[in-house]
Structures are given as structure tokens and as C-alpha cells.
UniProtKB/TrEMBL annotation:
<dbReference type="Pfam" id="PF07883">
    <property type="entry name" value="Cupin_2"/>
</dbReference>
<keyword id="KW-0732">Signal</keyword>
<dbReference type="InterPro" id="IPR011051">
    <property type="entry name" value="RmlC_Cupin_sf"/>
</dbReference>
<dbReference type="InterPro" id="IPR014710">
    <property type="entry name" value="RmlC-like_jellyroll"/>
</dbReference>
<dbReference type="InterPro" id="IPR013096">
    <property type="entry name" value="Cupin_2"/>
</dbReference>
<feature type="signal peptide">
    <location>
        <begin position="1"/>
        <end position="38"/>
    </location>
</feature>
<protein>
    <submittedName>
        <fullName>Cupin domain-containing protein</fullName>
    </submittedName>
</protein>
<feature type="domain" description="Cupin type-2">
    <location>
        <begin position="88"/>
        <end position="156"/>
    </location>
</feature>
<keyword id="KW-0614">Plasmid</keyword>
Length: 170
């Protein structure tokens, strides 16, 4: 009878583990964004209060609430908050006016086109392209402009105070 040590895996086991690891890593890389920094403020350009409020009014932008949830009635029981999903379309030259995320975190996903963000926390404009997302947190105030040639289509998910419930981007 032969005795195989359990301390050293067999060649067959090692190959299986290696193959499985390679498949998992390959899958993770395939699902990862092409460029982790795409649509982010470039290194060395970040800061606080780098851009002052812009007075440009809303222009050529439509904002439609797709769905919303009163989260006070959900297990999270967050009082006076609404979790909402909006579809925002910004025509070429269109503007989403200056607004703050001091008390309204949001995540924006660009479905189509591209749009330029002018954030208080970045010294240079940030271009967001289709397939990219950005998190908007406290400490960020900004405005957006469609500097592209086609309509930009965005999805915005935010957690807003019920008292502030407004279909607009302010």
C-alpha cells in the first residue's frame, strides 16, 4: 500500500487549483472597468473648494423619476428619506446646474454619450463617457455640461430627504 503525504498536493490537484485561480482572475478582470480611473479627477488635481459655484441655469435637460422607495418603510428604516432612480437626458450644450451633495449621496451611470463635470473638488473638468459611473458624496458640489455632439443619457440613483423631493437635479 502506498501512502501519499497530504502536506504536498498532487500535481493533478495543483493544476486544478491553478486553472481555477486563473479562471477566477480572468473573470474578475473581464468584469472590471477598462480603466479604473476613467471619469475620475486626475491625480494631483484633487482638493477642496477648487471651483466656485457656477450661475448657469438648467438648459436642455430632462429629468424623469423612474422609480422611488420610501426607505422608512423598508428594513433599513431610514426616516424621511427616499431612494430614487432618475433618467436624465442632456442635449448637446445642455447644463445641469450647480448643486451640492452635502446631504444627498448619489451614483451616476452614463448610459449614452459623454458629459463634462465641473466639481468643487477637482481643478480640471472631468469627462464621463458611456459605461462609466461616478459616486457623488458629501463635500462635493458641481455642475455638468454636455460638451459632446450627441445627447448624454444618465441614470442617477440618490438618497434624498423627502422634504427635498424634487424632480430636478438641484
Amino acid at each position: 500500500m502506498t501512502h501519499r503525504s497530504t502536506a504536498v498536493p498532487s500535481l493533478k490537484t495543483a493544476l486544478k487549483r491553478g486553472l481555477l485561480g486563473s479562471l477566477l482572475l480572468g473573470s474578475a478582470l473581464a468584469l472590471a472597468p477598462a480603466d479604473a480611473l476613467a471619469g475620475a479627477c486626475p491625480a494631483g488635481q484633487e482638493g477642496v473648494g477648487l471651483r466656485m459655484p457656477d450661475p448657469s441655469p438648467a438648459k436642455d435637460v430632462t429629468d424623469k423619476v423612474v422609480a422611488s422607495i420610501d426607505v422608512a418603510k423598508e428594513p433599513a428604516a431610514i426616516q424621511d428619506r427616499q431612494f430614487r432612480l432618475r433618467r436624465i437626458e442632456v442635449k448637446p450644450g445642455g447644463v445641469v446646474p450647480w448643486h451640492s451633495h452635502g446631504d444627498r449621496p448619489a451614483i451616476i451611470y452614463v448610459i449614452k454619450g459623454e458629459i463634462t463635470e465641473y466639481a468643487s473638488t477637482c481643478a480640471v473638468p472631468i469627462v464621463h463617457k458611456a459605461g462609466e459611473s461616478t459616486a457623488e458624496r458629501h463635500g462635493v458640489s458641481h455642475w455638468w455640461k454636455n460638451t459632446g455632439k450627441g445627447t448624454a443619457v444618465l441614470l442617477s440613483a440618490d438618497l434624498l430627504h423627502v422634504k427635498d423631493a424634487d424632480p430636478g437635479m438641484t
